[in-house]
């Protein structure tokens, strides 16, 4: 009991010291803040007995630093801005109050979190990058600069000609839909920065926002989802993979113009192209996950190239054997047709098997997505959710 009293006493002292703290040159905080904080309880949300509080959100995407296919995630730096109305903070005047970010500890703020975040941190150089601004009608603007690593479930079956749709999901941790409502302040225009974003390997093709509800065992919680579609730039792969593999196939065909008696020359070309193609295939897989989506479009292409190169080596072995056996021209023609037929048949079988595996994999991934994060019911898309309680007209907010 004494510990509780001691903790409560320390808390009151801390709040009192923050409110009565002196700024430089001996000036104290304006009387307006003292008046607002008097009797204010940060542990109770606004409109505690009068319906849910509506929180509007907007995002600025400062950068998307890395997109990892191995870890299935992306790292982004965002400016998250939240707006809500607190009737306890209404004051007289026509100018807003910009407070020190450390005073946010004295106010109630939404318990927003990023759903699929693996690792996040708030920038704190030179001070914590937080902004708090209060308007005369009680509207509060709360802005943060966050760097977060977010999971993005990727389908790599069409790699490197694939498109990936990633999301940034914002939820309330403890307040359900009866306490808090989320909405995008300006619909799709609530997210900015992607139009001028420069990515090393991707281009942003499309993006949009949606409002949802997340259903868990503990209840229904408000949820905002930002979707963005990334298209991979294929030029790098054309220069690094497709052109070299195609040239290796052509190089393996050079052996057809070399005399059958030149065994070292033809064997050297055949073995060298096979080993080079094997190295190229292994290199194309080093930057990709092996367990997830192990069959990709680039694997199909490289596999077919390898079949042609290996077939050229087998063709010389069969032709050399037939020459040593002194077979007639008709028999040689029959053997050549059989070899070509076998190679084509094997290639078709490989393509069919890869197609079947891809269909099965995509079906399993679709079922997995339906079960992930509970059952999510989309309430509306491309628009703000209708509010149950109208907020007073806010003074125009100029974001920092």
UniProtKB/TrEMBL annotation:
Molecular function terms, GO-annotated: GABA-A receptor activity; GABA-gated chloride ion channel activity
Domain Neurotransmitter-gated ion-channel transmembrane, chain residue ranges per copy: 241-324
Catalytic activity: chloride(in) = chloride(out)
Subunit structure: Heteropentamer, formed by a combination of alpha (GABRA1-6), beta (GABRB1-3), gamma (GABRG1-3), delta (GABRD), epsilon (GABRE), rho (GABRR1-3), pi (GABRP) and theta (GABRQ) chains, each subunit exhibiting distinct physiological and pharmacological properties.
Gene3D superfamilies, sorted: Neurotransmitter-gated ion-channel ligand-binding domain, Neurotransmitter-gated ion-channel transmembrane domain
Signal peptide stretch: none
Membrane topology, record value: Multi-pass membrane protein
Known role: Pi subunit of the heteropentameric ligand-gated chloride channel gated by gamma-aminobutyric acid (GABA). GABA-gated chloride channels, also named GABA(A) receptors (GABAAR), consist of five subunits arranged around a central pore and contain GABA active binding site(s) located at the alpha and beta subunit interfaces. When activated by GABA, GABAARs selectively allow the flow of chloride anions across the cell membrane down their electrochemical gradient. Pi-containing GABAARs are mostly located in peripheral tissues.
Domain Neurotransmitter-gated ion-channel ligand-binding: from-to ranges: 33-233
Residues spanning the membrane: 234-258, 264-288, 300-319, 331-361
Subcellular location: Apical cell membrane
Coiled-coil parts of chain: none
Protein name: Gamma-aminobutyric acid receptor subunit pi
Family in the record: Belongs to the ligand-gated ion channel (TC 1.A.9) family. Gamma-aminobutyric acid receptor (TC 1.A.9.5) subfamily. GABRP sub-subfamily.
């Amino acid at each position: 009991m004494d510990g509780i009293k001691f903790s409560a006493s320390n808390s009151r002292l801390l709040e009192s010291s923050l409110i009565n703290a002196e700024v430089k040159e001996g000036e104290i905080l304006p009387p307006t803040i003292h008046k607002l904080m008097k009797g204010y309880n940060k542990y109770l949300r606004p409109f505690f007995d009068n319906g849910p509080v509506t929180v509007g959100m907007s995002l600025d995407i400062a950068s998307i630093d890395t997109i990892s296919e191995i870890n299935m995630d992306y790292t982004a730096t965002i400016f998250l801005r939240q707006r809500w109305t607190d009737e306890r903070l209404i004051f007289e005047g026509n100018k807003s109050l910009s407070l020190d970010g450390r005073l946010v500890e004295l106010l109630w703020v939404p318990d927003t979190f990023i759903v699929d975040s693996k690792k996040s941190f708030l920038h704190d150089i030179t001070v914590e990058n937080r902004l708090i601004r209060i308007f005369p009608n009680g509207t509060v603007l709360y802005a943060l600069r966050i760097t977060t690593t977010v999971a993005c479930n990727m389908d790599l079956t069409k790699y490197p000609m694939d498109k990936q749709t990633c999301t940034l999901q914002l939820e309330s941790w403890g307040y359900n839909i009866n306490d808090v409502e989320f909405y995008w302040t300006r619909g799709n225009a609530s997210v900015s920065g992607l139009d001028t974003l420069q990515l090393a390997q991707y281009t942003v093709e499309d993006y949009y926002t949606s409002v949802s509800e997340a259903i868990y065992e503990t209840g229904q919680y408000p949820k905002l989802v930002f979707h963005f579609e990334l298209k991979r730039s294929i030029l790098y792969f054309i220069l690094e993979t497709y052109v070299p593999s195609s040239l290796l196939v052509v190089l393996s065909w050079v052996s057809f113009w070399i005399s059958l008696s030149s065994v070292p020359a033809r064997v050297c070309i055949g073995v060298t192209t096979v080993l080079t193609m094997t190295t190229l295939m292994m290199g194309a897989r080093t930057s990709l996950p092996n367990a997830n989506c192990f069959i990709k479009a680039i694997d199909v292409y490289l596999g077919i190239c390898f079949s042609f190169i290996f077939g050229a080596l087998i063709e010389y072995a069969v032709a050399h054997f037939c020459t040593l056996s002194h077979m007639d021209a008709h028999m040689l023609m029959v053997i050549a047709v059989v070899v070509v037929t076998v190679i084509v048949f094997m290639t078709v079988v490989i393509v069919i098997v890869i197609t079947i595996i891809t269909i099965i994999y995509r079906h399993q991934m679709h079922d997995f997505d339906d079960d992930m994060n509970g059952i999510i019911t989309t309430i509306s898309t491309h628009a703000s959710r209708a509010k149950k309680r109208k907020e007073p007209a806010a003074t125009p907010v100029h974001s920092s």
